Structures are given as structure tokens and as C-alpha cells.
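Q: Can I see a sequence and its folded structure?
A: Here is a first one.
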Amino acid sequence: MRFSLLAAVTWLLATPAVYADSLVEGDAEAGKGRSITCAACHGAEGNSANPLWPNLAGQGAPYIVQQLANFKEGRRVNALMTSQAMMLSEQDMKDLAVYYESMPAVAQAVSDPSLVDRGRALYIGGNNDNGVPACIACHGPAGRGNPGAAYPALNGQHAAYTAKTLADYASGERKADAQVQIMETIAQRLTPEDIQALASYVQGLK
């Protein structure tokens, strides 16, 4: 617990509360035009209607660019996303990322109120017994991530998508990026009940 709290304080001191300007040099208007195809799955302004497809609104631009590049270069595999990313130039990716970063995420409630206490405990304090660090250390107290480190925002993300992502990390189906390989280790230490509690809790973060 002492390590988790220290990491959280360090994050808070090192990270600005609000990012006034994007860390990616893109054109939001151009990204909006490019997003027409993306809207079929991710919603007109980046808020997906399907809980298994991620919300992109409010997501940090560096993370979006990184993931699009991963799909294009085969480091992350999804038949639909890979085919879409293959058609994007580097500037297209930046434009899309800045556009979605500028869109407001739709606030959601937790998906299962009965899991709030367990989810909050894991998110804020981790679990020293099995070596799970506090999520707050990288993703922030409100789940807004750390754009400078390309750590994703989690607040308001569909619980079903978050749960699947953690399960995919645990199984090895999804490989973490080089600088955040810790996600695979963390996910493997979470029980299925932990994953459901965390996924429900972050859906309700605002």
C-alpha cells in the first residue's frame, strides 16, 4: 500500500491536471473529416454505442496515434482495425487522434454497483498480496491517463471493453507496448472477479 500511495502522489505532482494543448501536431478539422468511416463503430463523436467497441472521445492523442500505428504495423492484430489503419498516413493518424482527444467523453455510471468497493480498492490501492499495483499511479485519480507517457484514459470506458482488454492481456492475445509491458503481468495477477470489479469501476470514473 505504501508503494501504491507513493506512486500515486508522484503521478499527481508530475502530471498537469488539464492538457490545454495536444501533445500531437494534428489538425482536428481534418481528423473530423477522416473520422466518418470510424463513426460506424466508434460513434459520430467517438462515443461508441456497442460496449465491446471502445470509446475514443477524450482519449489522449499520443495513445491513439500509438495504437493506430500498432495496428498498421502488425504489433496489434484485429482484422477490421488493421485494414482501416493500413489506409492511414502518419498525418491521418495524428489528425484523427487530435480530433478524438478534443471530443467530450460521455459520462457513464458504474456497470455493477455491488462491485464498487472492490473496484475502488484495487484502482486506488492495488493488492500487495499478489503484487498488483494501484491503477491510479498510471491512469490518474479520475482515470484520465497520462498523455505524455501514452498511458490511456480509462474514465467512462465501457466495462465490457475494459474487461475484455484485461482478459486479452492476461491470456497473451493482446501484447503490451514496449514501455508498458507491465500490463500483461498485472492482468495475469488479477482474478476474473477483480477484472469485472475494475472494469465496472472505471466505467463510472468522471
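Q: Show me another, different protein.
A: A second, unrelated one:
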Amino acid sequence: MSDLHNPFIVPGEDAGDVEHHILDAAPPTPRSKFQWSTVIGPFITFVLFLVFWQYMHESGMRTLFDKPGFMLPSPVTVVDQAFLTAKARGKLIDGLGWTALVASIGLGITIVLGMTLAMIMARAKWAEHAVYPYLVALQATPVLAIVPVIAAVFPNGVGPRLFVCVMISIFPVASNTLFGLLSADKGQHDLFTLSGASRFTRLRKLQLPAAMPAIFTGFRISAGLSVIGAVVGEQFFRSGGMPGIGIVIEEYRQKIRFPQIYGGLVLVAALGIAVFLFFGWLTKVVVGHWHESTR
């Protein structure tokens, strides 16, 4: 094409000048840089939380709830008696390890079962109509309401705790996976149909890649819920060994050892934050930077 017919060249400019104009007009390449707000914001919130905690210990409990201050020990007392005392620290950390193990096993079962159900529901509408309402009902059922049933069905051991973990955490995995599988582009489906792709190929190369952001969102939600399920299960099913952090907290509650109780709660919260951050990191590793959810 001659320069006279090139729409990007105006009289008086040559091709080299146009190239420089185009390069100058191109948007700058984004650079990854550290954002201090990701550190300063959580730090300020943490400091304000400690200040509020100290206020509640000194006067807030008595003023607002007419309760003595020792029922909410100060942060310094909790750190001293729960984490700096070797016996209490060892007991709490051992309990946290057992809870993390049960929560991990329960989450693994949840992921396999939830994704399997979602794939079945994505392939057949009748399966979605048959299964999805019961997943919603299971999510809405209070654990306390079916504790006698769980105790009657499962023998003493880890089984009841795993069931509680799966019961609490399966809905986010199944619903997010189903949403992701059904969100694949219709035009892409048509291309796979024209090429004669099998159902397995369509699932592996189209639906699962498109569903990855939603799937890992479900994983992040269910990971925290699995920790909650493990602790709740330990509160009701204490036999069968594996004294998790929930059992340790209950023992300290019976002895009215409030600093150790709050120390255990801090460890449970830290475990929930850790698994949430882990799955956030895993999302970026698996999904990469091709989807806007990881940017």
C-alpha cells in the first residue's frame, strides 16, 4: 500500500515518524510495585483492635456488660500465659496441629466430592434439579440439630469430625464449581461442537480452564469453613484420640483459664487466615495472570 493510501500517514510525515507516534501513543506497560497500603492498612487495624481489646479488659466489660475484667484478659496476659508459658504453648500448638490435620482431610474430601457433584450437575440438568436443593438444605441445617444423628451413625473417632467439616464446607465448592463450568463462552462451545470434540475434551480444555477462578474462590471459602467444622466437631465428639484445639479450649474453659482460652482462639483465627492466604497464593500460581481476578 502506498503512503498516499495509508490512513495512518498524513502529508509531511514519513513512515518512520508515524511509527514513533504509534509507539508514543501506546499505553505504558504496567509494572509490579509494592503497595504500602497492603501493610499499613492491616497494621493500623490490628493496633486499633489491640487498643479496643485493652479498653474492654480495663473498663469495657464492666461498663457495657456488667462483667468482671478478668473474663477478658489483656493482650499482654494472653501472650504471657498462653504463648510464653511452655506447658500451655505446647498443649495449644499440639491441639492446633491435630485440628489442622482434620481440617485438611475434611477439605480434601470436600473438594473431591463437591467438584464431582458439580461436574455431574453441569452435564445433566436433571441432576442439578435433583441434587442442588439438598446441597442448599445441607448448608442451611444447623450442626446442633443433627448432632444426635451424627453420633448415632458414626462410631467414636475422627469420622464425626470429618463429616461436620464436609457438611459445613461442601456448598461453596459445589456451587462455585458449577457456576464456573456453566460460564464457559457459548461461542467456544460451538467451536468444540463443530470440531467433534468429546465431552471429556470439552470439559478438560474448555470448561475447567474457564471455571478455575470460580473454583479457587470456592476453595478459599471452604478452607476457612473446614477449620470451623473441625473445631465445632471437636466440641461435640471428643473421643477417639486426636485432641484438637477445640478440645484443648474446652478443657481450659472447664478450669476457668481465660488467658489460655483466648490464646486458643487466636491460634484458630491464625489458622483460618493462613489457609485463606495459602489458597489465594495457589490461585495466582494455577490461574496465573491471564484472568482479571488475579490482577
